[in-house]
Design brief:
Order of helices and strands: EEEEEEEEEEE
Helix content: under 10%
Radius of gyration: 13 Å
Oligomer: single chain
Shape: globular
Largest sheet: 7 strands, mixed
Distance between the termini: 37 Å
């Protein structure tokens, strides 16, 4: 499966932004999908994930309550809705897919497929 993330941009503190991860090559419903982010000089960080059916999610403590992941399997797309953005949310955001449909893992190494990333910059 090939993934492509989009929707990033430069925004002010407190605004909202929605990222999308579009899949091609294979139905996204076969995969658990997660969002990660990576800021310059930092390790790749788990943001959140959603199971194949879309009825279970998991979030990092740093974004819980502000970020929401949803999916539309008919459109082979997963969305990351971000509200109340903070400067510390600035990073390249990447979507990833894993054929493990049982667990929403937080380790990047457990994801087989990655999109190219989209930059989110939050300024005060």
């Amino acid at each position: 499966v090939q993934l492509q993330a989009s929707g990033g941009g430069s925004v002010q503190v407190g605004v909202s932004l929605t990222l999308s991860c579009a899949a091609s090559g294979r139905a996204l419903s076969s995969y658990t999908v997660a969002w990660f982010r990576q800021a310059p000089g930092k390790e790749r960080e788990f943001v959140g994930g959603i199971n194949w059916k879309g009825d279970r999610t998991r979030y990092a403590d740093s974004v819980r309550g502000r970020f929401t992941i949803s999916r539309d399997n008919a459109m082979d797309t997963v969305h990351l809705r971000m509200i109340a953005l903070k400067p510390e949310d600035t990073a390249v955001y990447l979507c990833a897919a894993s054929p493990n449909v049982v667990t929403i893992n937080s380790l990047p190494a457990l994801y087989n497929y990655w999109g190219q990333g989209t930059q989110v910059t939050v300024s005060s």
